[in-house]
What we know:
This protein has 3 helices and 3 strands. A hairpin with a 3-residue loop joins β1 (20-25) and β2. It has a 3-stranded mixed sheet with strand order 1-2-3. By secondary structure, the protein is of the alpha+beta class.
Amino acid sequence: MRYFLELVLGRLVTHPDEIDVEETAEEQGTLFRIRVNPEDLGRIIGRNGRTIEAIRSLMNAASRDERTIFVEVEDGEFDGDNR
């Protein structure tokens, strides 16, 4: 799932090498935290949040188990050394 998310995000942003995805398994499901270059934040969120909602829908549709997929976008300052 992480690879799929990185693939989708890489096609949306102008700095695909600065995508950082953190995956955490929780009781309710799997949480993906996304960090991108601040210039790409608007591209990921989209107008009125439509793009991030579409990404969340894609992730849940692609999920092979019954666990829910949660996708959060962190708007903090990007640190390229986090990889």
